Amino acid sequence: MNHRRANSLLVSAVLVALLAGESAAWRRRRQTCSPINCQWGPWTSWSSCSYQCGAFGTRTRTRPYSPAASCGGAACSGSNSETEDCNRFCPNGSPYQAGCDCTGTGYTGTCCDVDADECALGTDICHEHATCTNTPGSFTCTCNGGYSGDGYTCSPNEVDECALGTHTCHAAATCTNTPGSFTCACNSGYTGDGNTCTDNDECTLGTASCHEHATCTNTPGGFTCDCNGGYTGDGSTCTDVNECDEGTDTCDEHATCTNTPGSFTCACNGGFTGDGFTCTDIDECAEGTDTCDEDATCTNTPGSFTCACNGGYTGDGNTCTDNDECALGTDTCHAAATCTNTPGSFTCACDSGYNGDGNTCTDIDECAEGTDTCDEHATCTNTPGSYTCACDDPYTGGGYSCTVSCSDLYPGLHPAGNFGEFRGQCFWSSSHRNPKLDYTAARQACGLYGGTLAMIKDDATQRFLKNHLKGTSGRTQRNYWIGLDDLNSERSFLWNDGSPLGSYRRFRSSAPHRIRDCVVLWRTARLAHWDIKSCDLTMAYICQLAGGS
């Protein structure tokens, strides 16, 4: 046993040595931070006291580590909390355990801070004929009126306060002496305890005896009654006054007075307006409340109005009937005028063909004034109230429309069958019987009759001339001068009336030219085109002349 124990102790010693050596080495390897000593942070505020008052109150405060010890640093010394006494006082009484002892202080409550009202609690020692008055922590005693003493003991006084005037009765009360005191009773017409008396308002309480039409006025200890306006009497009895019969009303002279209980009313008579005290005449005519006929004149009168039919009407003014002057023959219209009846009158209008105001009418010479509708080729002849038209030679027709053929207008141009009319103008083409002319001579030949060579400014005119040439008498020609040339400026073509060539053109060729400056209408049985030719060539030609319309 001893041997085994020795071996065991040996092994243990070796292990301890090894472990000790390893721990020191290990600690050397691990020691990589600097030691930090512990420090205290600031104290917190004191906590609330554990009791409001007495002998046991305490309060506590604490402080934190800031910082705590680390890496082998020194620990903080001292405690992290501390406690102290608090509220160990009593405003009244003395500290006792967790409160105060209030015995004999006149106060109550945990901390003896509430006054004890001995008078209310009945713990006072005042005499039965004394008045107790509470004071902070105590009370006082005062003998009542009629008694004397220190309040704890009171004896009655043998004094007549009523006779001496030392009583406290109200001026409107009666004082009655009693042993050691007195009593007060409010007089009639007053209410109260005798020390204070308030006047009874009989008017408000409804205990007054005034008439229903009287006014009650309260007085100290009584009341008065006075009849209201419009009534007469002593206030207890009141009778209505009839102002209308007595003439004491203030109604307007144009108003009616009506008596009412205690007063009167005024109402303006018919035809007047106002409050009855002041009445103003109503102008029914101006306000449109009259009953006059619309064709009558209203005239205002005091309180009413009159109606009279206007001129041209008959009736009583309330109903008016129009006079038909035209039918009665009382109009003043001229014999050549038409009379038209109108409401209350008539109008005169001169008949057609006459001028004037209807009362006087004068014949209009339409021919001289140019207001006739005769054709420009007719002669106008004035007649009473009208005129006649007759066509001039060689025109024919009714005078308002006169026509004439182109051949009659231009008898110097032959053959007559070569005339055609289009858009109110005459077109004439020369034939093989007529001499051919150069461009200038042809233009002059047309100018002798106030015309020009034909101007083909649109397709309709082109088609007309093409068809017209088919129907002319004699042999038709292939080329006809028309009124188009560029004699003034090369390739700037102008029509004979001076207007430039527009967008419509029917040139057979657009090849340039130099000498050929005048245009002909070149035609076949099917075609019709324009060609530019030398103006010196002699050709047939077409004239465009004014028509007869």
UniProtKB/TrEMBL annotation:
<dbReference type="InterPro" id="IPR001881">
    <property type="entry name" value="EGF-like_Ca-bd_dom"/>
</dbReference>
<feature type="signal peptide">
    <location>
        <begin position="1"/>
        <end position="25"/>
    </location>
</feature>
<dbReference type="InterPro" id="IPR036383">
    <property type="entry name" value="TSP1_rpt_sf"/>
</dbReference>
<dbReference type="InterPro" id="IPR018097">
    <property type="entry name" value="EGF_Ca-bd_CS"/>
</dbReference>
<dbReference type="InterPro" id="IPR051586">
    <property type="entry name" value="PKC-binding_NELL"/>
</dbReference>
<feature type="domain" description="EGF-like">
    <location>
        <begin position="158"/>
        <end position="198"/>
    </location>
</feature>
<dbReference type="InterPro" id="IPR000152">
    <property type="entry name" value="EGF-type_Asp/Asn_hydroxyl_site"/>
</dbReference>
<feature type="domain" description="EGF-like">
    <location>
        <begin position="115"/>
        <end position="155"/>
    </location>
</feature>
<dbReference type="GO" id="GO:0008201">
    <property type="term" value="F:heparin binding"/>
</dbReference>
<feature type="domain" description="EGF-like">
    <location>
        <begin position="363"/>
        <end position="403"/>
    </location>
</feature>
<keyword id="KW-0732">Signal</keyword>
<dbReference type="InterPro" id="IPR016187">
    <property type="entry name" value="CTDL_fold"/>
</dbReference>
<keyword id="KW-0325">Glycoprotein</keyword>
<dbReference type="InterPro" id="IPR024731">
    <property type="entry name" value="NELL2-like_EGF"/>
</dbReference>
<dbReference type="InterPro" id="IPR016186">
    <property type="entry name" value="C-type_lectin-like/link_sf"/>
</dbReference>
<dbReference type="InterPro" id="IPR000884">
    <property type="entry name" value="TSP1_rpt"/>
</dbReference>
<dbReference type="GO" id="GO:0005615">
    <property type="term" value="C:extracellular space"/>
</dbReference>
<feature type="domain" description="EGF-like">
    <location>
        <begin position="322"/>
        <end position="362"/>
    </location>
</feature>
<dbReference type="Pfam" id="PF12947">
    <property type="entry name" value="EGF_3"/>
</dbReference>
<keyword id="KW-0245">EGF-like domain</keyword>
<keyword id="KW-0677">Repeat</keyword>
<feature type="domain" description="EGF-like">
    <location>
        <begin position="240"/>
        <end position="278"/>
    </location>
</feature>
<feature type="domain" description="C-type lectin">
    <location>
        <begin position="422"/>
        <end position="544"/>
    </location>
</feature>
<dbReference type="GO" id="GO:0005509">
    <property type="term" value="F:calcium ion binding"/>
</dbReference>
<protein>
    <submittedName>
        <fullName>Fibrillin-3-like isoform X2</fullName>
    </submittedName>
</protein>
<feature type="domain" description="EGF-like">
    <location>
        <begin position="199"/>
        <end position="239"/>
    </location>
</feature>
<dbReference type="Pfam" id="PF00059">
    <property type="entry name" value="Lectin_C"/>
</dbReference>
<dbReference type="InterPro" id="IPR001304">
    <property type="entry name" value="C-type_lectin-like"/>
</dbReference>
<feature type="domain" description="EGF-like">
    <location>
        <begin position="281"/>
        <end position="321"/>
    </location>
</feature>
<dbReference type="InterPro" id="IPR000742">
    <property type="entry name" value="EGF"/>
</dbReference>
<keyword id="KW-1015">Disulfide bond</keyword>
<dbReference type="InterPro" id="IPR009030">
    <property type="entry name" value="Growth_fac_rcpt_cys_sf"/>
</dbReference>
